[in-house]
Amino acid sequence: MSSENQNTRVITLRALSWICEDQIDRKLLSMYVGALNLFDVDALNLFLDPQEEIDEERVNYAAAQLKISVEDVRMRYQTLAQQFGLRLNFTTNAS
Q: Which of these, 27, 32, 57, 92, is most buried using a 10 Å CB contact count?
């Protein structure tokens, strides 16, 4: 996940995503934002680069596309970040 080669990181994350029991988590990992703002939520094609920060824009987009709450997306990304070393750049509404 810390390789200097982006393709290596993305391929590694894609392979590791199959240990996720939840399909929504796999879809969150497959959300890739490229130079053309291309998003993929079918968990089949593009995957995010684990070195790119997951920000509020990605969280909000994922929530809308997957029809789940923003807070659920944040919590899922936090769990995935611990599991896969993802970088987060958003705040939570923790009480």
A: 27
